[in-house]
Amino acid sequence: MLVGYSSSSSEEDGEAGGEAEGAKNQSETTCRKCQEEDDGLPTRKKPKTEEESPKSRLPLPGCVLAMFPDEVDSQTEDSSLHGGRIRSFKHERGNWASYVYFPYHPEEEFGELLDGILSAACARGVVLTVQDEFHLSLSQTVVLRHHWIQPFTQSLKSSLTGCKRFVCSAGRLRMYSNAEKTRTFLGMEVSTGHAQMLDLIRAVDRTMTEFRLETFYKDPSFHVSLAWCVGDQTVQMEECMQELQSLVDDHEDGPFVLRLDCSELRCRTGNKTFRFPLES
User: Fold this and answer.
1) Residue 41, SS3?
2) What is the span of the domain harbouring residue 237?
3) What integer is the mean pLDDT of 134-155?
4) Where are the alpha helices (DSSP H) in the chain?
5) Distance (Å, rounded) from C-alpha 101 to C-alpha 254?
6) CA 93, CA 73: separation in Å to the nearest integer?
7) Active-site residues (predicted)?
8) pTM score, two decimals?
9) How far does Cα 242 stand from its chain's mean position?
């Protein structure tokens, strides 16, 4: 970046007045140098002054570095640091992975059932990892630039105006996989509340379209993901799905039903979470 520089009159005067004096000094220096060489003495080096010594560079502020997001943190791309998971898109500074969802807060009964499901799958050779958190997605994972976050969430809030809260339930296990076939999921599919979910999808998709982002799937299967494994293991999981479903259907007090209170929609973007309470 070019910076405009205006020299002062004293500097200009100093430069002009120094030309004659500089010529005189140069002549005297030449004579001294010749005299030293004639005497057989080595030429003395001029010691460095503080002004000539290299100056250390100050680190750039983070806000400036964020303006140039081409550099990728190698650790974020190392799948071994994420349980073998592979990113669906390249991580770059200033890009925020974002999605819209309903959180699910499990009860103790759910945890006991999930432990039994994972043990039965493991006995069949399918090793599943429990989700870090349970939720029901209402958008695909998209990438937001940092300066989009505020207008995006404002648009989402406006789109959700008039949407009512409700309760949905799920009880049927189903397999899912991501588009790249790098992970396989075990989820519990929603059986009631499907119509209300579709209304919310239309509202969320309006904001996605406004920002030219991917909208949700055309024929969605709303579900809460329970666990996952690396790679495409749909064939192995298919072989034990009936046994896993029987654990849900033959639960202690009858078939287990997952009930999800859909009263507050959330948007996760990077490490920030935005909440959107629905109307009563």
Assistant:
1) coil
2) 92-277
3) 97
4) 9-38, 62-65, 108-123, 149-159, 194-210, 234-238, 241-249
5) 29
6) 8
7) 135 (proton donor/acceptor), 223 (proton donor/acceptor)
8) 0.69
9) 36
What pLDDT digit, counting tens, does each position of 175-212 carry?
999 888 899 999 999 999 999 999 999 999 999 999 99
The CATH code of the domain that includes 124 is 3.90.1140.10
| C-alpha to C-alpha distance for 173 and 226, rounded to whole angstroms | 9
Q: Which residues are catalytic?
A: 135, 223
18 within some domain: no
Query: Looking at the domain assignment, is residue 33 inside a domain?
Result: no
Is residue 117, in this structure, part of any structural domain at all?
yes
Q: Give domain status of residue 174, yes or no.
A: yes
Bridge-based pairing state of the strands 183-192 and 264-269 = unpaired
Q: What gap in Å lies between CA 248 and CA 254, rounded to an integer?
A: 9
Domains: count for the chain: 1
Compute CA 262 distance to the chain's CA centroid, rounded to the nearest angstrom.
25
Q: Give the residue from 131, 96, 95, 93 showing the smallest Cα distance to 114.
A: 131
Lookup: tokens for 6: 């205006």
Contact of 188 with 171, CB cutoff 8 Å: yes
DSSP state of 96: E
Q: Torsion-angle region of residue 231: left (phi > 0), alpha (psi -120 to 50) or beta? A: left
Q: How far apart are CA 90 and CA 88, in angstroms?
A: 7
Query: 187 forms bridges with which residues in the sheet?
Result: 174, 225
